Amino acid sequence: MFAAATKSFVKQVGDGGRLVPVPSLSEADKYQPLSLVVKKKRCFLFPRYKFTSTPFTLKDILLGNREISAGISSYQLLNYEDESDVSLYGRRGNHIVSDVGINVTGSDSIAVKASFGVVTKHEVEVSTLLKEITTRKINFDHSLIRQSRSSRKAVLCVVMESIRTTRQCSLSVHAGIRGEAMRFHFMDEQNPKGRDKAIVFPAHTTIAFSVFELFIYLDGAFDLCVTSVSKGGFEREETATFALLYRLRNILFERNRRVMDAISRSQLYLDDLFSDYYDKPLSMSDISLKEGTHIRVNLLNHNIPKGPCILCGMGNFKRETVYGCFQCSVDGQKYVRLHAVPCFDIWHKRMK
């Protein structure tokens, strides 16, 4: 009866599908803000999830004894009174009958009346909690963590808001026959005992709640999944390995891109040098043609093998030459390799 009433409340209040009805009156006190619940998918035939309460709070599974400083705000939500007819031939009617054990002999419907009165909403300050958890770690030795981690279907959740009653409330169920002018028409001779059931529960009873899923990393850090797009669970070793390889791939890709950009810039610089050389008419002012200047030599004649030109052989293509200059030296080497044209003249113009 209680479960049917809370489901009806959630269906009418809505809240974008985030609200979850409390399934049992005996567990209502376990769905308080910052309490932990386990979310499990029933099976592939049922898209809805099952939430199971635990005796733990978020603080219990964290390392250290520091209290969670995030506060809880409260305010009145609405005044809830509901009366509805439920057919015995529907799933909800069958559930209520099996739940309360009401006598439905000669009946085709049941009337459910829920009087919750003014209900209040209690919710955690999300922004404060998000700042605090950045410095906290999960205790993997906690029994709840070990058990949840061993099941791939289990997801740990934190209760972020709860809706509670403010006064003593009542639920009543009446079985009867649907009439034309009134909801039910009872005939005394056809109204055996057991057609009416009622329960009363105390004030401050939780009737609905909402949660944020937890995503727990291998190093103990964790995130709150504040949107329905992000999913909770435990980071698996194969997932962490794949993520590491993906990051390394991106790093290598970026490094190769930078190297290619540098090579491209150096290539453009050399092209500009050669363009300036070839566009300028050859004249007697060239250094290589002046008397007493450095002289081109064939290095093979001095038992020096062919090698990359010091000016244009360091780019993308290793341009090699047998010519060079003995009057120049680089890095302790008593000669430099230079193409006869145009690198020899360009080199000496730069060195001038």
UniProtKB/TrEMBL annotation:
One Gene Ontology biological process: regulation of peroxisome organization
All copies of domain Gasdermin pore forming, residue ranges: 1-235
Superkingdom of origin organism: Eukaryota
GO CC annotation: ciliary rootlet; cortical actin cytoskeleton; cytoplasm; endomembrane system; neuronal cell body; peroxisomal membrane; stereocilium base
Keywords linked to the UniProt accession: Membrane
Pfam families, A to Z: Gasdermin (PF04598)
Main subcellular localisation: membrane
Cellular location(s): Endomembrane system
Family to which the UniProt record says this protein belongs: Belongs to the gasdermin family.
Protein name: Pejvakin
Organism: Bos taurus
